[in-house]
Every structure is written in structure tokens, then in C-alpha cells.
């Protein structure tokens, strides 16, 4: 959030706004998200999406790619996720909206409420985006990339929030194991898909998953023990119907467009850990 504020201030000092920034551009990729711990996160998530969509329409952008989230499709760990069919872009996380709306004061004080806020904000923002495109028919083609949990080598500054899951496991912290296993994607594949979506006709008007591998915590922990035997890696969690990830996503189109193969889970984990200062014994 600090980086975003610094960038926004720099634009303001130069007298620039979204519309002028988009001038002469043909495509826009919108990957931004407000600070989850700030006030009025849901409204800020909606506003940050809609402001950009409207600005892009005014200057004649031809293709708009929005970063969604798997949490707008389903509530990770929920027993209500269909397991007898593929999850597709037609699914929406109605459960996440309800969890946010009905959260008690006690729940609002717990860490899980941050997830409820995130789910609600992303569902509502994306729905408003699709409605805006339908009603206003802007000049651009619209598509949404739906990433799973994203890990990637950290390039600079504070690590991304999703990397805290990995950091915890490398230091013996069991907190991550409270999270339901889900699909993991290397952010480099996710970024590649965002760029491809700017040109790919098959992506137009679709919600397309960027979710390379369904995993369980035991698989992740096994990779960590192999490469970091001196680290206090937690023991495998108890058997659970949610571990490994029990649902299946429709990722055929995305898999084809990344070249038929995703960056492997082991490579993703090892290179991400290296960026956090952890050297593999294989190096």
C-alpha cells in the first residue's frame, strides 16, 4: 500500500491522472488491490476497479484485463464446494459474501475476517465490472484472470502477503496449515497469462483461471524437507478430506496458452524460498 501511495503521489505531482496515463495505450492490465487492513476495504476494492474501467472507456482502450481471484469463485475449505464437476467461470462465491455480511463482532476481531473482507470485496468489484461492461458497452474487450494462491521469488521490498505462508512453514510456524489447501500458481505464469489475455481472442468475455497445481500441505512440506533439512519444517497435518485440494478447476484453456505446462511446484517453492534468504541443500 505504501508503494501505491508513493506512485499515486508522483502522478499527482506531475498533474497526471488515469485518463492521461492511458493515452496512446491499446490495453490495460489492472492487478491492484487496496490494503486489506485499511478502512472500508470492500468499497475501496470496488472503487479502484470501477475508476479504472471508466477511465479506460473514455480514452478508447481496446482490451482490458482485470485480475480477479479464486476467492471470488469459492470459499477455500468450504464443504459446499462442488466436487462432482469442474469449477468454471460460471461459479461465484456466494458463501463468502454471506460470511462477510453476517460476521459477528467476535469474528470481526479474528484473523479470518480479513479473508471474509477480501472475498466480499473481490466478488462485488468483479460483479460490478461485468455489469458495467454489459450495460455501458465500452470500446474495449474485457476479460478476467482468476489466480489461485500465488507464490513467486520476491524481487524487492517487503514480500507479498501470500509468501507469508511459505515463510511460516520454513520457520516452523504452523499458522499456514490452518489454511485450506488450494491451487498454487507461480506468479510468473500468472503474469504471462495477463499479457497473453491482451491479445488472445479466446479469452474475450471470459473468466479464465491461472491456477497451475492443486496441492496439499503434505506435498509442500515434503518439498521443503527435501531442500531445507536444517529448517524446523512442521510435521504433516492430520488426514483431512480437504487435503489435498479436493475440487477441480477448468484450466484447459489457460494450460494451453501458457505453452501446455506450468512452472513446477518444486521450482516455484525453491526459488521463492531463495528470494527470502533460504538456500536449498541442492544448490
UniProtKB/TrEMBL annotation:
Gene3D superfamilies, per database record: NAD(P)-binding Rossmann-like Domain
Matches recorded under InterPro entries: NAD(P)-bd_dom_sf, NAD(P)_dehydrat-like
GO molecular function, a single term: oxidoreductase activity, acting on the CH-OH group of donors, NAD or NADP as acceptor
Keyword line: Oxidoreductase
Family matches, as SUPFAM superfamilies: NAD(P)-binding Rossmann-fold domains
Family per record: Belongs to the NAD(P)-dependent epimerase/dehydratase family. Dihydroflavonol-4-reductase subfamily.
Protein name, per record: NAD(P)-binding protein
